[in-house]
Design a protein that fits this description.
The protein is mainly alpha-helical. The chain is 76% helix and 0% strand.
Length: 123
């Protein structure tokens, strides 16, 4: 688990670094940075239940803001390729990417929560 958490932490640091030229880096750099901190703490076996739960709930709620864009992408635009270029020229592409990015982060927080419970039970 330690290696996986280090890999996830490094990936989230890289994701945060790539946000510097995004339209809203003040939102996305902290989002990815927070996830990186949680992963690095987990690698050190320093799980913080409240950091994990707050991250999962907050990111899930924020993810709901992008549901209309995902619906538009899927139903109105036939699931058009959202990875064809890094420059998102259509709003539903950007919203769909942000939705799935947050979904991955929520999944990582859920993973961390269950790892924390397993680690705490084994102590």
């Amino acid at each position: 688990m330690r290696a996986l958490n280090i890999i996830l932490g490094v990936l989230f640091v890289l994701c945060a670094a790539l946000q510097y030229n995004d339209a809203d880096p003040h939102i996305w750099i902290p989002i990815y940075g927070y996830a990186a901190v949680v992963c690095f703490m987990a690698a050190a076996k320093r799980y913080n239940k409240w950091m994990i739960l707050v991250g999962a709930v907050a990111y899930f709620i924020y993810m709901l803001n992008f549901v209309p864009g995902v619906e538009s992408w899927f139903f109105e635009h036939g699931g058009e390729n959202i990875a064809q270029s890094m420059k998102a020229t259509k709003p539903w592409i950007e919203e769909t990417r942000e939705f799935f990015g947050l979904l991955i982060l929520v999944g990582v927080f859920v993973f961390q929560y269950f790892c924390m419970r397993r680690y705490s039970a084994g102590r």
